User: Fold this.
Amino acid sequence: YVKFIEAYEKQGIPIWGLTVQNEEMATQKWESCLYTAEEERDFIKEYLGPTLQKGGLGDKKLIAWDHNRDLLYQRASTVLDDPAAAKYIWGIGYHWYETWTTSGPLFDNERRVKEAFPNTNLIFTEGCVENFKFDQVNDWKLGERYGNSMINDFNAGTVGWTDWNVLLDEKGGPNHVGNYCFAPIIADTRTGKLIYTNAYYYIGHFSKFIRPGARRVAATTNRDWLQATSFVNADGKVAVVVMNSADKPQEFQLWVKGQAAATTSPAHSIATYVIE
Assistant:
């Protein structure tokens, strides 16, 4: 870990943080390393944490778990209930692939972690839509999956959100084991063109209007197909991201401190309202 960070920074590439291990409960056809919750806890407190400190890298953000939401609370509580391990941990990372079991996204598990450990950060460390097919790059469900996850993750207390790969080729790669996936931008190497999918623009509603240092404020809706999250930026402007996943437009009133503005969310759309 220390040698890796030092080598990157020697090349002028700053390292903000690191996870203990990617997907600690997955035996994959690509590079894998399994840890039980107890093994991860002990590795952090007895080896990794002290080694980073000794190497002068204690300021790097150390992230535990880095796997799906399904076991998020169990894994987080095991490492964070031990003060000797918890003192090295900046946050708990997670992915969205619990849906491989046919489960829906388990956003409540994020809330349970935040309720139990309010001073520990939650960060989404990986997500992509799998099973790439070039003829589906314009499927609107791609963007809506990102929007649904980002809104619910932020509302559950997540402080950062990272896509798996922002750019892949027309095969959904390159990938050394054939794990071809969708990405917000597809580079068609046959034509030299970039395809900006709707997922790119869905992500943009968050990354463009919710700036570093923003603080989340409460946002609620009165229709389950209308989702929203809102943040106050450092300049005092409020950004409200609203997504409509229904097949029909939805009229609504945007209320802020007793004042309201009437507007309409088109069917299958995402929009950001900036209040100065």
